[in-house]
Amino acid sequence: RIVTKPNLKIDELLLDDVNTVLFGMRIISFGPEYGLSFNCLNCGEKTDCDVNLLEDVQVKNSDEIADFATENISLTLGGKDITFHLPRMQDEKLINRHMQQLAKDKTVSNDSDRLYVRYAQLMDTVDGEKLNIFDKMAFVDALQIQDLDTFAEALNEKSFGLVPECLKDCKSDKCGFENSVRIGITAEFFRARPRN
Fold first, then answer.
1. Alpha carbons 178 and 166: distance in angstroms, whole number
2. 3-class DSSP state for residue 173?
3. Cα 35 to the chain's mean position, in Å?
4. Burial class (CB in 10 A: 0-12, 13-18, 19+), 114
């Protein structure tokens, strides 16, 4: 349970803030040590490793980001000027609702379509016009891969808080490649580590 000041609505929290709160809860509840596995990007071998969430994970403050804003962020995609906002909790709820409706209508074929729905949800205007979610999804669907990459990079550039990834070496004697490992929030994240 999160205790907040009056007038702070959980649904309006940025996902970056929520992510940082979740990591903080994990550290307070079970300590900073967290075990995870990854497949090496170089050799494919599985490596089990320990992560110290206080030492191995970087933090990016919003004042380190040039022209930081959470909304009315401008970008040109597919020759059109768009504005977008950073993802909030309420966006995730709406994305889930859109995905359920699209699955019911058999409009989406798999969960990879969620990315298109997410991008459409985060867009506020296209060439100054507010569009409904279906028109925004059609716009996103018509974009080139390079435009989608540009949007992803713009979102990453504005992202702040705890960066849920760290560098870990492959433990294979023949490899030792340094991997950038994403620290996912799974069911295991909220369990105490088993004692040896």
1. 10
2. coil
3. 21
4. middle
